[in-house]
Write a structure and sequence with these properties.
Blueprint (H helix, E strand, L loop, with lengths): L1 H15 L6 H14 L1 H18 L4 H17 L6 H8 L3 H7 L5 H14 L3 H7 L9 H7 L3 H17 L1 H10 L3 H7 L5 H14 L5 H5 L2 H12 L5 H14 L11 H17 L6 H13 L3 H9 L6 H8 L4 H15 L12 H16 L6 H9 L3 H14 L3 H9 L1 H8 L7 H19 L10 H13 L21
Helix pairs in contact: 1-2, 1-3, 2-3, 2-4, 3-4, 4-5, 4-7, 7-10, 10-11, 10-13, 13-16, 15-16, 15-17, 16-18, 18-21, 19-22, 20-21, 20-22, 21-24, 24-27, 26-27, 26-28, 27-28
Length: about 500
């Protein structure tokens, strides 16, 4: 038995005072390699009794190997029959694994966390971690409440990983009450590093589809909004809070789960932050504009950005129309494209009357206050810039052109039509695809509009349809073969 051998060797080594340098490390390295083989894997269930003293050993190397062995056992055992979980229960290993999460050696804590994640991959494992009928807090809850900030961060990182395993695991985490730790840590204003770590973990969690369902609570939104509004906190904290809020607000189903006042309060906090940063090209301003882009990908989010007073979408329009800072203009153009519906389905591309009126007024006002004097002039100005901004301009036109007023502006600007129908105007694959998608959007909008029978746009329509048929990739038009006749030379 590998662990029996370890235990015997450890006892001899202790008696001899570790006279042989590197003995323990060599032995543990050998055992780890054995347990990675198919033969070693078959021995893992029998090794659990010896893993228990290993988890409590004085040596961090021994504790790490014990945690790794448990993790490997759970990873390789059948998730349905629960052999690995049953062995852990019978030998009382679970409390020792939890204790290792607080180990002073980072490698031991990491191995213990991996064991917990593997345990949560089975239904029986989840029942061990989060007992469904527990009348008191779970072992993990009790341990988290009585541990240091660093250990709580480790447990929060495990929670983030559990959210990505399955909906069942996410539901179990929610039911356990462990998510309340996030709000507790966010309220800790004395330790900026701990708060930043919590925000980083939250950022990972909100990438999972089910996360918003459990994380978007009244108190969580209020806490994030308070961090965004606090000009005294570090810019990194505000930026992460902005990104997390945007991800939470980028799902249509969320707006019915939380009070409208709290949602508006979060958006207002981002608005005030952008207002404070409007004369800068800071990374925080760029992140806030990206947040508007993400919120604008859903219909309710876009309407909120346009219908509040003053409209938060004005920051995207102002940034897109500015020529001072390239990064700000790029972020603003992408944000305006998302708000206008470039990423939304056809049925949700157009917004309610109030939002549509506001969008139109914002763009026309920005055009009048610029040297371009018209929306078509602004769009043409964006298309004349570097490739990245030109791609953003293609997205913007694709989103806006569903509106009659924008369709007229685009079709009346011959330079825009010439560019989007020219297969040689872009040299990169993504550029060709964006240009062609823009061309398709203009053509479809024109064919379904009241302008389709307008003689003034007949040539434009034909040109667009020819470009659509040609496709995005420098396709050559069909040329009929011509016979070549030459005088035969005789010698």
């Amino acid at each position: 038995m590998p662990f029996l051998t370890l235990e015997s060797t450890d006892s001899n080594a202790l008696k001899d005072g570790f006279d042989v340098p590197g003995l323990e490390g060599s032995l543990l390295s050998c055992l780890e390699r054995i347990l990675k083989t198919s033969y070693g894997v078959s021995l893992l269930p029998q090794c659990v009794p010896y893993a228990q003293p290993g988890l409590r050993a004085d040596s961090p190397l021994t504790r790490r190997l014990s945690c790794k062995s448990i993790a490997q056992l759970l990873e390789n055992s059948d998730k349905d029959d629960g052999v690995g979980v049953q062995a852990i229960v019978e030998h009382g290993v679970w409390p020792s694994i939890v204790a290792c999460l607080a180990d002073s050696d980072e490698s031991v804590a990491t191995a213990a966390a991996e064991a917990v994640k593997n345990l949560a991959k089975s239904t029986r494992g989840l029942e061990l971690i989060f007992p469904a009928k527990a009348e008191v807090d779970t072992l993990l809850n009790e341990f988290a409440m009585n541990s240091s900030s660093m250990v709580r961060i480790r447990i929060l990182a495990i929670i983030a990983a559990l959210f990505g395993i399955s909906d069942e695991a996410a539901t179990a985490v929610h039911r356990s009450g462990l998510l309340g730790m996030f709000e507790q840590e966010l309220n800790n204003t004395t330790d900026m590093l701990a708060t930043l770590n919590v925000l980083e973990v939250l950022y990972e969690i909100v990438t999972t589809p089910i996360a918003a369902k459990f994380l978007l609570t009244k108190s969580m939104l209020q806490r994030l909004a308070a961090t965004i509004s606090n000009s005294a906190v570090d810019s990194l904290l505000r930026s992460r809070s902005i990104t997390i809020s945007a991800r939470l607000l980028s799902s249509d189903g969320i707006y019915s789960a939380v009070d409208e006042f709290d949602v508006k309060n979060a958006v207002q906090a981002i608005d005030l932050d952008l207002e404070r940063l409007k004369a800068t090209d800071s990374n925080e301003r760029e992140i806030a504009l990206d947040a508007l882009s993400q919120i604008g990908t859903v219909m309710r989010g876009a309407e909120l950005l346009l219908c509040n007073t003053p409209p938060t979408a004005r920051h995207a329009v102002d940034a897109a129309c500015s020529r001072g800072w390239r990064n700000i203009q790029l972020a603003g153009t992408h944000a305006l494209a998302s708000i206008s519906g470039q990423e939304r389905g056809e049925s949700t591309q157009l917004l309610n009357d109030q939002a549509e009126t506001c969008l139109r007024n914002l763009i026309y006002t920005a055009a009048e206050n610029s040297s371009k004097h018209s929306p078509s002039g602004l769009l043409w100005s964006l298309l004349q810039q570097d490739p990245e901004i030109r791609l953003a301009a293609y997205r913007l036109i694709t989103g806006l052109v569903m509106r009659q007023w924008c369709l007229w502006e685009v079709c009346a600007k011959q330079e825009i039509i010439n560019l989007v129908t020219n297969p040689h105007s872009e040299t990169t694959k993504i550029g060709m695809e964006f240009r062609h998608s823009c061309c398709v959007a203009i053509s479809n909008a024109l064919l379904s509009s009241s302008f389709k029978n307008d003689p003034a746009f007949s040539d434009v329509s034909e040109k667009l349809q020819a470009a659509v048929r040609r496709g995005p990739y420098l396709a050559k038009e069909f040329v009929a073969p011509k016979p070549q006749v030459a005088t035969e030379e005789r010698y």
